[in-house]
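Checklist before submission:
- one chain only
- standard amino acids only
- sequence pasted in full

Submission:
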Amino acid sequence: MAVTDKLFYIYDFIRPFLDIGILAFIIFKVYEFIAKTNSIQILKALVVIGILYVVAVLLKLSTLLWLINIIVPGLVIAIVVIFQPEIRKLFLKLGQSNWSKFGSRLTNTSVEEILNAAGILSKQKRGMLVIFERQSQLKDSHFLRLDTIINADISSSLLLTIFGMDTPLHDGACLIKGGKIVAANCYISSLSEDYSLRQSFGTRHRAALGLSEICDAIILIVSEETGAISLAYDSKLSYDLTIPEITQILENLLNVKEEDKKEENAIDDSTTDI
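Returned file contents:
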């Protein structure tokens, strides 16, 4: 019984810190999400109104309080309407979240095949858009339209054929799941509304970032204009990365385990010995 009382005492001590910590984390995440859109200006306006309300209460400014009380109900409705795209994206992302770490994974060899193709296309300044599916199911989603089903093993030669030539498939995206190229010429329907993006970024970069804002997919982009290789994931765009940097990020995010790499290296060594 004494142990139980001690545990309750410890919990009562840390509960206020836990309460404040969780609340601060939620506020930070909401602000981080809003800051990625032009709605940040609206948030600043709400903060100003909040400050005015506090001042009006403290100084007992009855006219100002009356005006704020009239405005606030309509303001709540206006917020829902104005923030509708952001609210929709937020709930889409929450609804698709899968807290389990299990699922199909890419092997280290598959990552190398994709990046070999990306490196060649980068030198040729040929555009490329590859979507790595994680927990969020994209095959039947309304924000990604699959055009040509392939279901082929990942190979750099196949990716070069799709993106390196002026074929009907090279303008769209390739969907990667596990060790397969599921489909090609996929169309991303959601373009990012992040106004901090460079004006020089075209549809590929905006589509990639837009998809990363509503699901947990990782999107690899090769720019036709500059040849720069970039990654979009978790609502952010990492521009002009090196192949080693991309390899490390993909291996971490796609859960390529160390034993997978060791096993493949052992196979490569045995092949070399033969």
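Reviewer check: The two ends are 68 Å apart (CA to CA).
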